[in-house]
Structure formats: C-alpha cells, structure tokens
Design brief:
By secondary structure, the protein is of the alpha+beta class. The protein is built from five helices and eight strands; from the N terminus they run βαββαββαββααβ. The strands form four sheets. It has a two-stranded antiparallel ribbon with strand order 1-8. A hairpin with a 5-residue loop joins strand 4 and strand 5. The protein starts with a strand and ends in a 5-residue tail after the last strand.
C-alpha cells in the first residue's frame, strides 16, 4: 500500500474523513461506523492527530470463512460483497474497528483505497481532499 500519513502535517480538520464518508456513502447518523477517523492525541503536552483507517493488514482476511476478502494487485484488501454472508468475523478481527457491515445489505464494508477513483487515475478521496498533504498516495511502479 502506498498511502502515507504525516501526523506532523495533520491539523485535525477531518476533511479526509468527510471525503471518505461521501465517497463510500457511510451514514454515521444512521449508526454506520466511519471507515476513516482522525482522532486527537495528546503527547508530551502537545496536541497531535492520528489517522485510524484500514492499514490493509489482512486480519479480516484471515478469519473470513467465505474468502470474500482478498488482496488486489496493489496489496490492498478488497471485499467481494457478493461472497459475504454477513457473519461479522472480519468486524471482530479488525484491530482498528474500521471494518463494518453495511446496514442495508449486511455485507462487509471497508476501505478499498477508492479503487474506482484509482482506476480512473485519481488518488483516493481522503488523499485528494487533504489540504495540508498529511495524507498522500503514491502509485506503485510495477
């Protein structure tokens, strides 16, 4: 994965979080959990921010009984919703709490690195929207 986060450049504006909510049609007011969150952290008397989003670690893949979670050519974990049975094992396995079940379809919902945008030559919405460059995306050269 070639997404990088620079906490020193993050101002906590949450533009990335809003872009993700919009891009993936996540509705927190209806009980859905955001796929990306920016949280404040106090460290040595200084306020900094951390990004809580899918790191594509594969913990969800390891427990999926149907194999609906697989790595793409970029190494990102992608979900094939049509194979998902909604058991929630992936949700429980996610160490960051950013894999969820879609409330309408009861199928896995997680960061896909904005695959549709990337196929069109654009960076993920969170990276594109970040005003300070704290989030950046670098295409891999194969």
């Amino acid at each position: 994965m070639d997404m990088e986060f620079d906490p020193g450049a993050c101002t906590g504006c949450a533009a990335c979080q809003v872009a993700c909510l919009d891009q993936r049609d996540v509705r927190p007011m209806e009980g859905e959990i955001p796929l990306l969150r920016i949280e404040p952290v106090e460290q040595d008397g200084q306020l900094t921010f951390r990004r809580l989003g899918c790191t594509h670690c594969g913990a969800c893949m390891a427990v999926c009984p149907t194999g609906c979670l697989r790595r793409d050519a970029y190494g990102l974990v992608q979900a094939e919703a049509e194979l998902c049975v909604g058991c929630g094992a992936c949700v429980s396995a996610c160490p960051l709490g950013v894999v969820t079940l879609d409330i309408e379809t009861n199928t896995v919902k997680k960061c896909d690195g904005c695959i549709g945008r990337r196929l069109e030559g654009f960076p993920p919405a969170c990276c594109h929207t970040c005003p300070t460059g704290a989030l950046s995306w670098k295409e891999r050269s194969e």
